[in-house]
Specification:
By secondary structure, the protein is of the alpha/beta class. The chain is 51% helix and 19% strand. Strands 1-7-6-5-2-3-4 form a seven-stranded mixed β-sheet, with helices on both faces. A hairpin with a 2-residue loop joins strand 5 and strand 6. Helix 3 runs parallel beside helix 4 and helix 7 packs antiparallel against helix 8. The radius of gyration is 17 Å and the shape is globular.
């Protein structure tokens, strides 16, 4: 994202906040610069459907069949990280995805609970508040961004670190160091975009 894109997303987010605050519709503009729910599934699927592998971190696997089918279609080219505390329904959906070849790792919920929602594929990435549940995608007010450029590479590097950490079973010392580094990166990003 460029500074211009940041300004557009900030402007779109402000319009959504103002409209929600005043119980009005935000209009079409925010949908042009944000991934906005209700109605965000198509944009999220478009990231997953890009050619090549896809990496996903999510707080839950969810129940949205369109998204689950898109991930399953990627087969072994999909890597998914979820918290170890996922629900029984999520466990069933994970088992189905694994039957399609999807690689899934579970991150221990302690000492750091994973609340991430990210998709990285090709030259695009999604980050936001949307879960893969029908309610999150179609009923709740949720907001996210499609990233391109330098931020995609940074997010991919973060995912690779998380993938290794989940593969290590979330070693506590490693998790604490990972959490400290992640917090430092978030602070750096926030100061850069203020």
């Amino acid at each position: 994202m460029t500074i211009f894109a940041d300004e557009l997303s900030n402007s779109g987010a402000q319009r959504v906040f103002d409209a929600d605050w005043n119980d009005q519709k935000a209009g079409p503009y925010p949908h042009q610069v944000l991934v906005l729910s209700p109605g965000s599934a198509a944009q999220m699927v478009s990231v997953i459907d890009q050619p090549g592998p896809v990496d996903i971190e999510s707080e839950e696997m969810g129940d949205d069949r369109t998204i689950l089918s898109a991930i399953a279609a990627k087969g072994h080219a999909a890597r998914v990280i979820l918290p170890a505390s996922i629900s029984a329904e999520d466990q069933r959906n994970v088992a189905d995805l694994e039957q399609h070849g999807v690689q899934v790792r579970l991150m221990p919920k302690s000492p750091i609970y994973m609340h991430a929602k990210a998709e990285i594929a090709g030259d695009e990435a999604f980050i936001g508040s949307e879960n893969y549940s029908t309610s999150s995608l179609n009923e709740n007010r949720e907001m996210g961004l499609i990233l391109r450029g330098r931020e995609v590479a940074q997010l991919r590097t973060q995912f690779d670190q998380d993938w290794r950490l989940a593969g290590e079973g979330g070693n506590v010392a490693t998790s604490r160091e990972h959490g400290r580094r992640f917090t430092d990166r978030v602070k750096d990003w926030w100061h850069h975009h203020e």
